Amino acid sequence: MGTLTISIDHAIFDGSLLLDWDLSCYPLGDFNHDGKVDLADVVALGYWWLDADPRFDIAPPPDGDGVVNLKDFALLAEQWLIEIDGE
Ligand SMILES: [Ca+2]
Q1: What is the pTM assigned to this prediction?
Q2: Model confidence pLDDT, tens digit, residues 12-35
Q3: In this structure, is residue 17 part of a structural domain?
Q4: What is the span of the domain harbouring residue 75?
Q5: pLDDT for 47-84, tens place per residue?
Q6: Phi and psi at residue 20, in whole multiples of 5°?
Q7: Number of folded domains in the chain?
Q8: 29 CA distance to ligand 1 centroid (A)?
């Protein structure tokens, strides 16, 4: 989680913006965002199989092909057991 404050000094917009978003990064195929690509992610992919859910339609990168299918499974398989360190 990160916080970025941007102040704009401009004649049209006289104020400030506060943007707050999650800057976490997960391996491709880590659908449940636990930091590793494992069986739980395969189960999630299977649940949405042949659906158009963009959260699981990861192949071809970056935006998928409109359906959760074997291409997405193959990409997940390439990432199999990849794990990132937690905090
Ligand atoms: Ca996972």
Answers
A1: 0.71
A2: 666 666 666 766 789 999 999 999
A3: no
A4: 25-87
A5: 999 999 999 999 999 899 999 999 999 999 999 999 99
A6: -135, 120
A7: 1
A8: 7
Q: 83 CA distance to ligand 1 centroid (A)?
A: 8
d(CA 87, CA 82): 16
Q: What is the CATH number of the domain that holds 74?
A: 1.10.1330.10
CA of 56 to the centre of ligand 1 (A): 12
Task: Write out the residues surrounding ion ligand 1, Cβ under 5 A.
Answer: 30, 32, 34, 41
3-state SS record for 37-83: CCHHHHHHHHHCCCCCCCCCCCCCCCCCCCCCCHHHHHHHHHCCCCE
Q: How many CB atoms lie within 10 A of CB 44?
A: 18
If you measure from the C-alpha of residue 57 to the centroid of ligand 1, how many angstroms do you get, rounded to a whole number? 15
